[in-house]
Specification:
The protein has helices spanning 5-25, 58-70, 100-108; strands spanning 35-39, 42-45, 49-53, 73-76, 84-88, 93-96. It has 116 residues and is α+β, with helices and mostly antiparallel strands. The longest helix has 21 residues, at 5-25.
């Protein structure tokens, strides 16, 4: 089944609109959401990350396959081996070529490395 870009873009737009609504509720000031670098110049909103998983097990591969079939998969690996799976709160699944520990360090704000 092919990915439907309009569905993914609609999901990303809905998440962005949700963030702007939250920003307006917090005093009316526009807040820029904290972004998490997931490799190759790709970023996700850090506050939306629910889980960072390793793709080694069969259930994780199944999760990626089902997200692809539903049009909720974002591929940030650029065709390289998938080393981490990020699950966002809207049910969107992001696959990355970075190790889960690297992404977790970046999420905690400890890592300043910009590899990949």
């Amino acid at each position: 089944m092919s990915l439907r870009p309009a569905g993914i873009l609609g999901t990303v737009q809905a998440q962005f609109n949700g963030l702007m609504l939250i920003a307006r509720r917090q005093g009316g000031k526009r807040m820029s959401p904290e972004l998490l670098h997931v490799g190759f110049g790709n970023m996700v909103v850090a506050g939306r990350v629910v889980a960072i998983l390793s793709p080694d097990s069969l259930p994780m591969r199944r999760l990626v396959r089902e997200a692809r079939e539903q049009g909720k998969l974002l591929d940030a690996s650029r065709g390289r081996k998938v080393r981490a799976i990020l699950v966002l709160d809207g049910g969107v699944v992001v696959i990355s070529a970075l190790h889960p520990a690297t992404i977790a360090r970046r999420l905690e704000g400890k890592g300043t490395d910009e590899g990949a």
